[in-house]
Amino acid sequence: MPLHRLLYTSEARLSDNASGADLMVESIVAHSQANNEKRGLTGALLYVRGTFIQALEGPLDALENTFERICHDFRHARLTLVDMSPASERMFERWSMTYLAQNDEPARLLVNRDLEELYFTVSTNAAEAMRQMRGLLLGEGKKPALEVV
Amino acid sequence: MRVIDCIVSDHNLWFVLLAAITCAVGSAVTTRLWRQARAATGRSRYDWCFLSGVVAGSSIWATHFIAMLGYLTPATVTFDAVTTLASIAVAILGSGLGFLITLLSPRLTVRIAGGATVGLSIAAMHYIGMFAYRVDGIVSWDPLYLWLSLAAAAGISVLAVLALDKRDTIFRGHLPAMLLMTSIVLLHFLGMTAFGVTPLSGVSSGVDSEAFSAMAIAVALVALLIVGTGVSSFLIDDRARVSSESALHHMASHDALTGMANRLHFHVTLAERCAALDLRQPEFAVLAIDLDRFKQVNDSHGHHVGDEVLRRVAHRLETALDGAGLVGRLGGDEFAAIVDDAALAEAVAGRVVEILSRPFLVNGMIVDIGASVGIAVGPRDATDPRDLLRNADVALYAAKEAGRATFRMFEGAMVEEMQARIALEQDLRRAVAREDFTLFFQPQVDSRTGAFTGAEALLRWDHATRGMVSPAIFIPLAEQLGLIGRIGKWVLTTACREAATWDPHLSIAVNLSPMQLADPRLPRTVSQVLAETGLPAERLELEITETALLANDEQALSTLSELRRMGVVISLDDFGTGYSSLSYLHRFPIDRIKIDRSFISGVATDQHSATIVRAIAHLGTNLGLKITAEGIEDGDQRDFSALYGCDNLQGYLFSRPLPAEKLPPAFAGRTTAPEAA
Ligand SMILES: Cc1cc2nc3c(=O)[nH]c(=O)nc-3n(C[C@H](O)[C@H](O)[C@H](O)COP(=O)(O)O)c2cc1C
C-alpha cells in the first residue's frame, strides 16, 4: 500500500468554556494517538487562532478511512483539504499524533510566532508548511507522547 | 348407541385417552404440514405431502394401536408383526397420496377424491391392523358398522379437505384438524363396534397387562417422536420463511446501494407522519437534499467512484441526522429527511450542508461535492406529504439559486420567484430557438486621430412583454441552461457578417463568456465563422474576462494561443475590477486591455481613479499591449485617457450603441476626430 500524506485545516467547534475545550482537545489527541498507532498512521495537529492544522500520513487505505472518520466529526467545521498526495517517505514518523498549540507563556514567544507564520503558509504552500511543521516540532523536542501545552 | 357402549365398556379408558391425545396432536400437526404443502410449489410440495403423510399415517397407526391395547378382550391376544408394519405403510402412503391429490387441482371433484383417499387410507390401516390382531376366539363382523365406518371416515375426511380452504373464525383455523381427528376416531370406534370376539373356552383369557402397557407407551413415544419431527420441520421452515420474509421486506424498503430507506419507505413514513398531524403532534420538517456537482463525479471518475461516494454520503447523512429523524435516498443523488422536531430542522440542515462540504478521498482521488437543502415544515407549510415534499423542493431550488452549499426554509414568496424564473427560462429557450436577439454596435475611435477604428458588438434581448432584458441577467442563465454555446455562435456569426460589410480597416470586438472560453471547440467554431463570413481574422477581436482565466487556466491558455495563431486579437475586458493579477498579462497571449468604465468615470474628479488609469495604461504600454478606455462621456475623460496612452476610446461621447443599419452612415459621417483639445 503506497504511502500518502494529507494536510487540512478546519475551524474548531469546541466547548465555549476554556477547560471544556481543553478536555475536548485532550480527548481528540488521545483517541487519535491510540487509533493511529493501530493503523500505522503518523502526523501532527496544530491549533492556531481557533484553527486546526493537521498533517496525517500513512498507507492509503488507513489514511482514507481515518480521514473519513475525521470528516464525520462535528468538533470542527469548514474543513479545507490543502494537500493530498503520494509520499516517498514519512515526515512525522516519530509521532502517532503530536499536538502543539499557542499559549500565553512568555517563554514560548518564538513558538507562538512560528505557529502564527505557519497559519499563513498553509494556505499558500502546503509542502513548505509541512516542512515548517516538522522543523517546529523537532525544535520543540516533541516526544511521541501526548503533551498538552 | 352401541358405539359409546363399545368405548366405555369394552375399553380401558386410560388407553382411550392416550389414543385420543395422540390423535389430536397428530391431526393438528398434519394439517399444518398439509397447509405448508399447499403453500409450497415445485418439488418441495411433494416433500411436504410426504411429510404430512408420515405424520398422518403414524398418528393414525399409533391411535389405532394404543386404542387396541386398551381393548378389553376376553381372549388371548397377539399381534402379527408383518401385517402390523404393513398397516402403517398403508396409512403413510395412502394419506400422503390423498393429500397430494387434494392439491393437484382446485376442482371440487379432485379435492373430494383426495379427501376420500385420506379417509379410506385411515380405514385401510385400521382393517389391515385388525388382521394383525390375533385373538384366540371366534371373530365376527357386523357389516352395518363396517360400512358405516368406511362412509364416516371418507365423508369426514372430505369435509376436512373442504374446510382447509375456508376461513373459519369460530375454530381459528383448527377445523380441518378437528375433522381429521373425528374421522380417525370415528372410524376406529365404529370399526371396533363392528368387531366382535367370542373366546374359545379353556384358554386362559386376557393379556399380560404390564407388557401391554409398556408396549403402549413405547408405541405412543414413537408416534410422538414422529409427530415431533413433523412439528420441528414445520417450525424450521416457518422460521426460515419469516427471516426470508423480513429480508424481502428489507429489500423492498431499503436502497440497495446505500442500505438506507428508499423512496417507497420514505414516502410511507412521511404519509404516516402527516396522518399523525391530527393528533396534535409537534411540528416536523421535511428536508430535500440535493448533491451539487455529483454528475461530474460520475462523468470524470466513473460510476465506481460515484457509487462509493453515494455510500459515504449516506453514512455522513446518518451522522448529520444523529437520530433526529429518518433519512432516505429518493433516487440518483437525491436524498430527503424527516426531522421529527421542526425546531431542529435548521440545525440539522446546517450539519448536512457542513458535512457534505467536506471532501471525500476515494482511491487516492479527492472528490469535492457539496449539498443544498430545502426545508418545509408540517403542518405550517403543508399537511399533505406531496405538498410538503414539493415545498421542500421549492426551498431547495431557492438554496441553489442562492449559490448552493446552503439551506433555505420554505417561504410562500419562493413559489412566485421560482415560477418567474422558470418563465424566464422558457422565454430564453424560445428566444434562442428563434434567434430572437439583436446586436447593437458601439463604435470605437483612435485617440490620436479621432478616426473610427471599429465597434464592439453588444447583445440585446428585446422581449415582447418583458422589454429589454439585461445580459447580466440572461447570460448567466444561458450558461446554466447550456444555451450559451448557441447564443455565442449566433453573436459571433452575426457580428462578423456585419463587419465584413464595413470598410476593411474597421474591426469588430465580440465578448466571450467564461463558459465559451472553456469549450475546447471554440477555435474551430471561430475559424468556421470567419470562413463563412469572409472576415479576415485580424479584424476580429475577442474580449474575455479575468474570471474566465481564473476558472480554467490550462484550457484557457491553449484555446487562446490557438486563436492567437489564427490571427485573432485577444483583449482582456473590465480590467481593474476583478483580481487583476498582473500575472495574467504575462501568462496569456493578450493583445489589448480594456480599462473598466468605473475608473474612467472618476479620472477628472477622483485622484485614486486617475492614478489607477495612469498606472494601467503605463504598464500596458510597457508590456507592448494596446489599451482601450471604455465609458468616455465627456471631453475631460477623453483628454485624460488620450494623454496617458489609451490608444482606443469608446463611449457615449463618440456614439451610443447603434443598430446595425445605422452604423455605416455613422462611420461615413464622421471619420475624422472631433477637435481634440
Ligand atoms: C481536528 C481533529 C483531528 C482528528 N484526528 C484524528 C486522527 O488523526 N486519528 C483518529 O483516529 N481520529 C482523529 N480524530 C477523531 C475522529 O474524528 C473520531 O472522533 C475518532 O477517530 C473516533 O475514534 P474512536 O473510534 O476511538 O472513538 C480527529 C478529530 C478532530 C476534530
For the largest beta-sheet of chain A, the strand count, sense and barrel status come to:
5 strands, mixed
Report the strand count of chain A: 5
Profile the largest sheet of chain B.
8 strands, mixed, barrel
The total strand number of chain B stands at 21
Kindly state the percentage of residues in helix of chain B.
55-70%
- Which of globular, elongated, flat, extended, rod-shaped describes the shape of chain A? globular
Which CATH class of chain A? Alpha Beta
Task: Name the chain pair with the biggest interface and residue counts per chain.
Answer: A-B, 17 and 16 residues
Report the radius of gyration of chain B as a whole number of Å.
Answer: 48 Å
What class would the helix/strand composition of chain B place it in? alpha/beta
End-to-end separation of chain A in angstroms reads 35 Å
Shape of chain B: rod-shaped
CATH architecture group name of chain A: 2-Layer Sandwich
Concise overview:
The complex is a heterodimer of chains A (149) and B (677). Chain A has four helices and five strands; from the N terminus they run E-H-E-E-H-E-E-H-H.
Ordered list of secondary-structure elements with their pairings:
The complex is a heterodimer of chains A (149) and B (677).
Chain A: E1 3-12, H1 18-39, E2 42-48, E3 51-59, H2 60-70, E4 76-86, E5 98-101, H3 109-124, H4 126-140
Parallel strand pairs in A: 2-5
Antiparallel strand pairs in A: 1-3, 1-4, 2-3
Helix pairs in contact in A: 3-4
Chain B: H1 2-10, H2 13-39, H3 43-69, E1 77-79, H4 81-104, H5 108-132, E2 133-135, E3 137-141, H6 143-164, H7 175-194, E4 195-199, H8 209-253, H9 263-275, E5 284-291, H10 294-301, H11 303-321, E6 325-331, E7 334-339, H12 345-357, E8 360-362, E9 365-367, E10 371-378, H13 385-401, E11 407-409, H14 412-434, E12 438-446, E13 452-463, E14 467-469, H15 471-480, H16 484-499, E15 507-511, H17 514-518, H18 522-533, E16 540-544, H19 546-551, H20 553-566, E17 569-575, H21 582-587, E18 592-595, H22 597-600, H23 607-622, E19 626-629, H24 635-643, E20 648-650, E21 658-659, H25 663-669
Parallel strand pairs in B: 10-11, 13-15, 15-16, 16-17, 17-18, 18-19, 19-20
Antiparallel strand pairs in B: 1-2, 3-4, 5-7, 5-10, 6-7, 8-9, 12-13, 12-20, 12-21, 13-14
The structure holds flavin mononucleotide.
Flavin mononucleotide (FMN) binds at residues 10, 28, 31-32, 35-36, 43, 45, 52, 54, 56, 66, 69-70, 73, 75-76, 97 of chain A.
Domain BLUF (chain A): 3-98
Protein name (chain A): BLUF domain-containing protein
InterPro entries (chain A): Acylphosphatase-like_dom_sf, BLUF_domain
